[in-house]
Every structure is written in structure tokens, then in C-alpha cells.
Amino acid sequence: MSEKKRRVPNPNPNSNPKKKVPKAQSHAQSLRSQLQSDASLLASLEKLRLETQQSLLSSSAPRTLSDLNLPSACREVSDRDVSAVQSSIERAVLGMARSILAGRGFSFDVPSRASSNQMYVPELDRIVLRDKCSSRPFANLSTVRKATITAKVLTLIYGVLQRNIHVTKRDLFYTDVKLFQDQSQSDAVLDDVSCMLGCTRSSLHVVASEKGVVVGRVIFTDDGDRIDCTKMGIGGKAIPPNIDRVGNLESDALFILLVEKDAAFMRLAEDRFYNRFPCIIVTAKGQPDVATRLFLRKMKIELKLPVLALVDSDPYGLKILSVYMCGSKNMSYDSSNLTTPDIKWLGVRPSDLDKYQIPEQCRLPMTDQDVKAGKDLLEEDFVKRNKGWVKELEIMVKTRHKAEIQALSSFGFQYLTEVYLPLKLQQKDWL
Amino acid sequence: MSEKKRRVPNPNPNSNPKKKVPKAQSHAQSLRSQLQSDASLLASLEKLRLETQQSLLSSSAPRTLSDLNLPSACREVSDRDVSAVQSSIERAVLGMARSILAGRGFSFDVPSRASSNQMYVPELDRIVLRDKCSSRPFANLSTVRKATITAKVLTLIYGVLQRNIHVTKRDLFYTDVKLFQDQSQSDAVLDDVSCMLGCTRSSLHVVASEKGVVVGRVIFTDDGDRIDCTKMGIGGKAIPPNIDRVGNLESDALFILLVEKDAAFMRLAEDRFYNRFPCIIVTAKGQPDVATRLFLRKMKIELKLPVLALVDSDPYGLKILSVYMCGSKNMSYDSSNLTTPDIKWLGVRPSDLDKYQIPEQCRLPMTDQDVKAGKDLLEEDFVKRNKGWVKELEIMVKTRHKAEIQALSSFGFQYLTEVYLPLKLQQKDWL
Q1: CATH class of A69-197
Q2: Running DSSP on this structure, what letter comes out for residue B214?
Q3: What part of A 159-198 touches B (C-beta under 8 Å)?
Q4: Residues on chain B touching A223 (C-beta within 8 angstroms)
Q5: What is the pLDDT of residues A353-400, one digit of tens each?
Q6: Nearest by Cα to B210 from B316, B285, B312
Q7: Domain spanning B208-426: which CATH class is it, in words?
Q8: What topology is assigned to B66-197 in CATH?
Q9: Is A207-426 a CATH 3.50.50.60 domain?
Q10: Which parts of chain B have pLDDT scores under 50?
Q11: A253-287 tens-digit pLDDT
């Protein structure tokens, strides 16, 4: 950087022109001057989109357990429509009736969801369940309660499907507090039933509350209403809790921008970032909820778009990415429906802290617990498979520095949308 | 109730017809049979809407501090447009320049926000600030830091207004971490600046993240985009963080239904409750955030609609109502812009537990802390003013029972939308 450039008057209205321009600020300006025309940038994004499309097409359908010749050893659930789930329940009940008539009594075969029955399948990049089952006979003191609860949950789900409505776990619990005693008991059996029937929890019409929002270049229907997310103002559209009522996705976006925090989402929405760079912007406002994960997956698969992620530069940001990509352990039986593989880590990455000269005082020291979390991540399969990610994590653990997305505000409130993200896209700086 | 009615076959598909119908279930059915036609119900709601309109018109403009002849003793802030706030900042800076030139030095006069400087004004039904100020001179070791931070925040706000963008408190903090050291320091000074300039925090274009959602019979613009909330599917529209970009409200609703929890919101949205009973349904998903409070107030004032609240039957549900109605203590200087007076308590009320025969096992025992919170509420002015509320709270504290909205699911998942709420509206059962 030339001495001359450093003396360029600071266009930032917040800074005092008489004060010597700090080094970091001047670096920020020089980065701004590196930005090329939007057209060249869009061309490279178009290329990324085509690559994503091709990779999705060449792998044909997303890989399944049965492609791997280990179906009998593992178990996954899939999305099923109302009548298919109802038939499954009817078959299960008929089977039990026959068993009773044959004098063998009434019992459920329930897949085990214990961690000893879980396994990571590298080919799928997902955690799945092994096929261990346990019997839950009615005529046994130690299982009679659970067998009764299982029968009750099956009855309730059948009723919900018949009315074609959606309910929450809490609603289920309240239908028979005397029997369930505690919500954790009906919740656990609900997961059992999902595994037993081989269908997702959303297929059972039991939904979690939504907290995600979406804005940008996507149109879809929510329960029949056509939603155009370029016309959702700054607040955006709340992501619907019931993914089975979402359909007819259309988009001219080049990529999906997955954002960890709502503050960054708000900045992007207010600056209508998606008008300059055609994209769809999504956030779950922190820890991803089921509805947002389902929605992201649906968009990626149906629209065949690359997903770029903007998270804090700390172990927690990466853990959030891992939940989107590989699922969480307690819902491993549902991992194939909830996960979005191949998310690119755009930023904020540990190497960005120096590259973008984030001021020392905006970097936060990592606690011992943070460092431990970082080291634990280095042992995770989904990190190890990506050398770039390993390198970044090693920088994080070595420097013991973390930074939030908002640390970029130190160069001006709109630095994120005007310089940082455009430059990242221009340089194809994702991993 | 006649013996004959009790023998009516149970239409609930979830229950076993051979089993004796439990008393509570049979009571639920008898309540269902009390429902009149929707037309008669709508007429009574129309009457409520007219009453609300008249009471809003007869009180002319909402009462202000100056109506009460105590303006010098109290201080409130109001919504101001960008240029008005900029002028205030310019005047403040000019005043300081003159003070320096006159040899009196550089100092801020900052209103005290301590609880000793707060007071409840019964005529307004709001907490306001008294007019105690403290001086914050630059040339004093104990105040030089705070004076510098105040000057910096004024500069930042001026820049934000000039660009006509919105930022979060966290963004502000990151612009100068070295100076602010800790976000609580920039946050506190931001509140000071709001009081000093006499304008709301939203007028300063500093926004909090939104978490509320809205669905139903209202159309508004969000940053120029026209949003029709009857066409927002089940997910609803996320309430925008920046209320100053919300405008052009239109509605044919008869009332606003304020819901504490998102599970109840989802049930109402999926059943399209607003199509049967024209209303606008709003929730902040728990503790109300600033954006939802501003949005509710704007709707109530501009559309002149009654607000009916559906909260859990526990002290916490009532506390949430109090935040909507009277504000929270730490933002008392902004109470007139954030509060929505005259919210009717529709349910779930302590007396409903017996009236609707909520089964014993769906009622939760109150902890000692709950009971104390209930007793504390009985001492609050906003409760004392409403005899019906006092009576309800006394029932709660005496029976030591609380219940969630979802306890109504014990009579069927759609009991809330098909029986409980219609019956409440029919009986004008709000306080």
C-alpha cells in the first residue's frame, strides 16, 4: 500500500478528519478500492451456482443408506405423506391385533436411540442409527407404562393426521397429563414412534416453534399463500413451522447466504443486499431450529443453489455450521432430512482477523472452555474432511482470538455489505 | 346439564367410545353446544370495536404529561423524524461550543434514570421520569470518560441518521471498543442520549432484534413493500425491527388478539381463526420485545381496535401484560411510546380453570416464588385499578394453581379455536 493512499481523506463521516487515520481504517479503505465491478463478481457467482447444480445432478439423487449396501445395519427416517403414515400406523395396529389373537401378546419393537446405537457414516457425512431394537411388551411390569404411552401417542398422531392439522410436543403432552406425567416422557416416545414408523417428526405433523426468518430472491407458497421474499420489507418472512405446507419454490438467486445472527441479517435486509447480489438470506437467530434446517435443506435441494455461511469466528459459530451440515446427535435418526451438506464457510474466519486487520480491541480473548471446544472440533470428522477448515481452526486455537460478525462495524456500519462480503465473493474466498 | 346430554357420543376421534366419558370431557361438550351462531358473536365484537373507537376519540389525543400540568416535574421522550433529531444534536453541539467560548467549559446535562427519579402517574397509567438532571463535565476526572462516550455516541447517531440506516446497540459498541470497553457502557449512554434529546431510541435509529410475528386481517408497508397478513401462510410475517419504516396500516378486523406464546399463535394461524372472527393475531413469543410493543401500539392507535390478550394463567402471564400496558422500569423515560393502555384480559384466567373444568392434572402447582410474584402483583397500581383483575389474582394466589394456554389441549387440539375462544367472545368474557 503506497504512502499516498494512506493520506486519502477518510470518507467515513464518523471519523474526525484532523485525527491521523488509524492503520486499520486505512487498510479498510484500501480493501474497498480493490473491489471490481459487480458484473465480474456476478459471473464468478454464476459459475459457483452451475458447479453446485452439476455436483447435485451428477450425484443424482442424494446418497442414501441403501446406496452404501449397509441398509440392514442402519436406520433412517424419511418424509412421508399423510396417507402413507396413516397406513403405517394401521399396519402396526393390525400386526399387534394378530399377535394378540395368536396368543403372543401385545408388544412394540422400538429402535434404540442410545449413543451406542449411533454412528457417523463418512460417505453420507451424517450421523445415523444402527438397527438395534428393543421389545416393549405390554404384559411386563417394567415396560407396561411405556407400551401404554406408545399406544396413546400412536392414537393421537392418527387423529392429528386425520384432521390434517399440526400440533406441538407440548400440545401432545397436555392431552393426557395423567398418563404422560412429564413432557419428557411423551417427547421420548414421540421420537420412538418416528423411528418405528420410519418417518420424520414433521410427517407426524408434530412441529417445533419457528424462529427463523428469510428475505431475498425466493418465492414460495406457505399453506397456499404465495410469498415473494423480495417484498417482505426489512423484517422478512417468518419461516413456517410446518415444512410440508411449503412448496412451489422459485428463485433467480445465485446463492443462499446463511447468517448466524439477526443483527447481520437486519443489516443485509435493510441494505437490500440481495438486489445487488441475487441471493436468499436466511437466519435462525443463533442455534438452528428444526424449521429453519428443514427450510434451508428444501431450498438447497429444490433450487440447487450453493450455500455460503456467515458466522462468528469462534467455536460456537462452527458448531452451528455443523448442526446445519451434519445434524445434532439426539436427532440422528432424522439426520438425512434435516441436514444440508456442502455448506461453504465464507466468514468470519480466523484468518480474516488479520487479513481484514480487525482492530485488536474488537477481538475477544478465548476462554479455556472456548479453546477446548475448538480443539474438540479439530477431532470431528466433518472438520477433518476439509483441510481449509482444519487450518482455520488451528489459527483460532493458536491465536486464542475470537470475533463476532459485528466486529466489522469498527470500519463503519455498512462495511459488511459494502466491502467485506463483496470482496469475499469477488475473491471466491470460501472454504 | 341433563343426563341425556352426558350420553351424547363423544365426537372427539381421540377418545375411546367404549370408555366412560370423563366428567371434564363431557363438560367440554356441553360448552361446545352453548355456542351461538357466528353472526351474533360478530355483532358483539363490532360493538366492542365501536366502544374502543369512541373512547379513543373522546379522550382526543392520548393524554400527555403536559395535559396534567406537571411537565416541569417529569420527562418523557417522543418519536421524532430524522431531521428533527439531527437538529437537536446540532443545537446541543452548538450550545457546547458557545459554553466553551464563554469560558464555562464543555459539559452535558444528563437526566437521571435512577429508580429514585421514576414515578408512576395514575392519570397516564405509565411510569415516567422526574426531571432530576446531573452534570457531566469534560474537565473532571470522575466524568471525563462518560462525557467522551456521550460525545462519541452523539457523533455516531448523527452519522447513522445522515445515512438513513438502522443499527443495533452491538454495532454501536463495536465502532470503538477501546473507548467503550464494555457494551453496557455504550448502552447506558445511548439511553442517556435518548433522554437528553427527548426522543425515542427508535428515532435514534438504534433498533433491537425482532422476534414477534403477526398474521391476520391487517395490511401495512414495511420499507415500502406492501404486506397483506392474511396471505402470510401459517408462519406469519416477522414484525420489522424498525417501526419508522412501517406505515399505511389498513384493516377490517374487529379486534387484535395478543397471544403470549407461539404454540397458540401457530394453532390460531393454522386454523385461520382470523377468517371466522376478523382479527389481527400478534405474539412476541414470550417476554415482549421493543419491536413488538411498538408495533402493537401503532396498530391500536392507528386502527383504533380493542386488544384482547391470551396469556398463561400464572403471574408471569400477567407480568407480560403489564409490560405491554405500563412498560418496564428500565425504559420508563420511553413509556408513552412503548405502552398500549387498555388491554383486556381475555384468558386464560384463574377463574377459567374451574369454569372450563381444566382437569386437575393439567393444572400446575405454584411454587412459593410464584405465589410471592402473584402477591406482589396485587400491590401494583395497574392491577389495583381493575377490580376484576384483583379478584382473578386472589383466586390464583388462594388456589395456588397455574395453567398454560396449552392445557386446553386436554379437550382436543382445536378446542382453543373452536370452543374456548368463541365462547369467551360470545360471553364478552374479558376484564
Answers
A1: mainly alpha
A2: E
A3: 159-160, 162-163, 165-168, 170-178
A4: 233-234, 270
A5: 999 998 888 888 999 999 999 999 999 888 898 999 999 999 999 999
A6: B285
A7: alpha beta
A8: Arc Repressor Mutant, subunit A (1.10.10)
A9: no
A10: 1-18
A11: 999 999 999 889 999 999 999 999 999 999 999 88
